[in-house]
Amino acid sequence: MCKTEYAVCGNPHLLEGSLSAFLPSLNLAPRLSIPSPWIRSYSFDGKEEWEVNPLYCNTVREIYPYSSSNRLLNIVDMAIFDFLIGNMDRHHYEMFTRFGDDGFLLHLDNARGFGRHSHDEISILAPLSQCCVIKRTTLLRLQLLAEPQYRLSDVLRESLLQDPLAPVLTEPHLLALDRRLQLILGAVGKCIDTFGEATVVANDTTQPQSPAGDRAKLDT
């Protein structure tokens, strides 16, 4: 149906929508909801600091846990994901409490994703462009998905064909992923040109070695 109080209407009777998968209850899987450092102002009255201060990341780096864990790198990962799907609404992120401060971020509430396929909202990439840091594993995956034989749109198209609701995404949305991926790689390239690869690309591919005592136990 189409009413004045709704922001969208069918054309003529079909309407794009989204599906939601709910996590276990908080009693079974306790989790924290944490405001994103790059939360939007959501008003016309003023701007958040990150929206007007290009050096905002320097402030974030001084705040725990962004100052001493992999949390900032995980925020950058989430920003890259949000940019690919066009989600501007990441005002909070969640974490399971049992994994502590170094746990993974839950990509929860993506309902604003895949809205305007023709628009690339560069401000979503602010954590990447302002902090100029990215996991090496993330960069390697992005570079692979930019290769012609592993193009992101092709990989996702093939994957979604297995979905009962196929095709799920329209072709313009799939092609937008390839375009946005190039913009992400361009942002990383600009950071590397400015600060050098050693500073920008965080090496998260090296597995820590066991202490000598533990290695001795393994040998016996």
UniProtKB/TrEMBL annotation:
MF terms in GO: ATP binding; kinase activity; metal ion binding; protein serine/threonine kinase activator activity
Binding locations of ATP: S20, A21, F22, L23, E94, D109
Residue ranges constituting the FAM20 C-terminal domain according to the UniProt record: 1-200
InterPro entries given in the database record: FAM20, FAM20_C
Origin: domain of life: Eukaryota
Co-factor(s): Mn(2+)
Localization: Golgi apparatus
Catalytic center residues: D89
Keywords (A to Z) from UniProt: ATP-binding, Disulfide bond, Glycoprotein, Golgi apparatus, Kinase, Manganese, Metal-binding, Nucleotide-binding, Transferase
Binding-site residues, Mn(2+): D109
GO annotations of cellular component type: Golgi apparatus
Family, as annotated: Belongs to the FAM20 family.
Name the record gives this protein: FA20A Pseudokinase
Organism of origin: Chaetops frenatus
Organism taxonomic ancestry: Eukaryota, Metazoa, Chordata, Craniata, Vertebrata
